[in-house]
Specification:
The protein has 106 residues and is α+β, with helices and mostly antiparallel strands. It contains three helices and six strands. Its cofactor is [4Fe-4S] cluster.
Length: 106
């Protein structure tokens, strides 16, 4: 468990998704957590699933596609959601789909 999880009481598995309709393509998310976010050729950010060491994975470009939030990257993913100018990054609990970080929690 990370310090962020202890502070926020978050212990459930989390997933993240990006609303591409709101994405401004600034790339802040990819700077904070390149293991989770990447800009595609269309200039928008997408999530990607965890990659085995030394391998690359395809971006999840389907609308509403989710990727798990690895615990070591939780604080980076949360920072991405908080700093995103498009307010398009949503982090939610897998168990019940409740948003825990992102524009719908403000």
């Amino acid at each position: 468990m990370t310090a962020q999880q202890e502070a926020d009481g978050t212990t459930d598995p989390l997933e993240v998704w990006i609303d591409q309709d709101l994405c401004t393509g600034d790339g802040i998310c990819a700077q904070y957590a390149p293991e989770v976010f990447e800009l595609d050729i269309d200039g928008l950010a997408y999530v990607k699933p965890p990659a085995p060491p030394g391998e690359e994975v395809d971006l999840l470009t389907e609308p509403g596609a989710t990727a798990p939030v690895p615990l070591p990257l939780l604080s980076d993913v949360v920072a991405s959601a908080r700093e995103c100018p498009g307010e398009c990054i949503h982090v939610r609990r897998v168990a019940d789909g409740a948003e825990v970080y992102g524009p719908d929690t403000a």
